[in-house]
Amino acid sequence: MPFQKSINKYIAILILGLFLLPMFTSAQSIEDLQNKIDSQQEKVRELDKQINQQRELLLKTTGEKKGVEGAIAELEASRKTLQTSINQTQAEISKSELTIEKISLEIDDKKEKINAGHDILASTIRRINEMNNVSLIEVLLSNSKTSKFWDQIAQLESFNKEVKRSVDQLYDLNEQLAGKKNEEEDEIKELELQKDELAGEHEAVESTKAEKNKILKEVANKEKTYQQILNEKIQQKKAFEDEIFAIESQIQILIDKNLYPEADTGIIGFPVPEPVMITQHFGATAFAQNSRIYKSGSHPGTDFRAQIGTPIFSVADGVIEDTGNTDAFPGCRAWGKWILVKHNNGLTSLYAHLSSTIVKKGQTVTRGQTIGNAGATGIVTGPHLHFTLYASQGVYVGPYTGTSGCALSGAYGPFADLDAYLDPEAYIPKNYTVAPGA
To answer: Is 70 exceeded by the pLDDT of residue 297?
Structure first.
């Protein structure tokens, strides 16, 4: 009968048109892209192994040779590790780009299915309306046997259930589409972070070259040994810390201890990759009332072992309060490139002597996110990370004052009330080692 054939026809169209036909449009392309993504992921894993091996070798040989030869060897090893890291980041970027392309195809596929489903359902609903205009008496009288009548009624019920199932699946497709769009947005953000990291790594490579040339020039232009030059830098570093102390001694900000967390293990993370070694403790100044005493002089923070190019992490969620580079101001021998992060828990952290900064003022960051690369900018005797932890209420960014080179050149940097300084070792995880003499 025509009526029965119509029902069978629309059920077939609904099933084939809505859920089978669009599946073949981009399935092969998606599969090809996934294979390429898997290949890039394998490349990333292999490069990661190489980086770990190179870092272990670098850490093992650091400090074995003294003087110019040892410093140059360390810089060359750092440059080699950085180049491998650059290759890895480029592989990560390629993987992310392929992933975005794959997600985009999946989004298009979902849209095709949804559009096809809309068209078919619209046609089906129109047909149902036409059928509803035929009364049950007319359907009954058009059949010679009542058994055929009841078969057609059963098929109509089945058909209605199939339509309902199809509508439900359309809703599911819409939800999947929204999920894919969110996934694509997340992947794009990750890609942007990877590109920032790549830029930072390239900058760090240039920093190794600059530091190497600087060492060779200093030794060549002065009738002094390398160790004498280092001793001179130590005195300059001490003068800078005294200058900071003199400025900050005049700052009067009431610090409410209820506005930041009490010291406890792991409240913040490590600012450098593990394994972590501390090369100089915090303390030995008038503001270090609750810290251990660093016998050789004042030190407004904690130093971590880190070769040029080592990724530097935000220790907690927060916002970039500011960044700067005191080396850009002639005669200012201070922090070099630095980043100040205001965290969500009442703490603020400073990262100094960096080779690159890959974040901007006002940017939101998360715990463990790479924000820059370690270096040897500013007043240092060698590459490392200087890390300071403050109570947020007592720290600000402003100009240097007095008659120093920093003040005369118009440089700016972070300053704090002396009571705002906190001992980082009271807040970080405890699985770190301490260098002899720290």
So the answer is: no
**Cα dihedral across residues 279, 285, 287, 290: positive or negative:** positive
Number of CB atoms found within 10 A of residue 436's CB: 5
pLDDT above 90 (res 200): no
Query: Are 356 and 204 within 8 A, CB to CB?
Result: yes
User: What separation in angstroms does the CA of 167 have from each of 107, 108, 117, 126, 178?
Assistant: 19, 19, 8, 15, 17
The predicted structure's pLDDT at residue 294:
34
Query: Of 228, 210, 174, 220, nearest to 375 (Cα)?
Result: 210
> 170-194 as b/e, with b when 16 or more CB fall inside 10 Å?
beebeebbeebeeebeebeebbebb
* pTM of the full structure: 0.71
User: CB of 342 within 8 A of CB of 365?
Assistant: no
| Tokens 């610090």 found at | 255
What is the predicted pLDDT for the residue at 388? 96
Q: What is the dihedral of CA 215, 216, 217, 219, to 10 degrees?
A: 80
Per-residue pLDDT at 23: 47
Domain boundaries, the chain: 2-193, 222-434
When mean pLDDT is compared over 102-111, 147-156, 342-351, the highest value belongs to 342-351
Instruction: Classify domain 222-434 at the CATH topology level.
Output: Glucose Permease (Domain IIA) (2.70.70)
